User: Which sequence fits this backbone?
């Protein structure tokens, strides 16, 4: 019983200390790269705030190279950690699920286009320059269950716009 009470107190203090970041939807656009396969990455996300630092929205990742094309679309739940001493610094954790479409060029043979179930796990750090504009860096681990790509890591650097 004491353990349960302690867990409830810890969770309650986390929820109370986590403040929704101004309650405005945020559009994020970025560029970066993926590892294994190595691609140039374009990404976009839209975070709709819920409460207590949580937001929900889509994440789109498009990676292209000479041999590979990856398109990942997921719905993500994001938790932004409030730091009262540094209100412009916004670290976050994310998790989501969606679909990954991978196309691999086999050098003259038939191309392989496959779809897989995608899990997205990640985190990042945003710095708000103004009340509406911020810069961010995010990293995502993308395990995909299915016949296509098994796993790739993506790094996105970009701008966030609070609407």
Assistant:
């Amino acid at each position: 019983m004491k353990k349960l009470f302690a867990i409830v107190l810890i969770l309650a203090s986390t929820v109370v200390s986590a403040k929704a970041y101004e309650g405005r939807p945020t559009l994020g656009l970025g560029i970066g790269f993926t590892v294994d396969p190595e691609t140039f990455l374009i990404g976009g996300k839209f975070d709709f705030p819920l409460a207590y630092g949580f937001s929900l929205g889509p994440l789109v990742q498009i990676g292209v190279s000479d041999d590979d094309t990856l398109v990942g679309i997921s719905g993500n739940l994001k938790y932004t950690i409030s730091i009262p001493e540094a209100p412009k610094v916004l670290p976050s954790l994310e998790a989501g699920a969606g679909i990954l479409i991978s196309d691999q060029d086999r050098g003259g043979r038939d191309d392989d286009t496959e779809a897989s179930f995608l899990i997205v796990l990640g985190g990042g750090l945003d710095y708000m320059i103004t009340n509406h504009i911020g810069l961010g860096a995010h990293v995502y681990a993308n395990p995909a269950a299915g016949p296509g790509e098994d796993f790739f890591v993506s790094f996105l650097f970009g701008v966030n716009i609070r609407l």
Remarks:
- The longest strand covers residues 112-128.
- The domain at 20-162 is CATH 2.40.160.20 (Porin).
- DSSP finds one helix and eight strands in the chain.
- Strands lie at 26-35, 39-49, 54-64, 68-80, 89-104, 112-128, 133-145, 151-162.
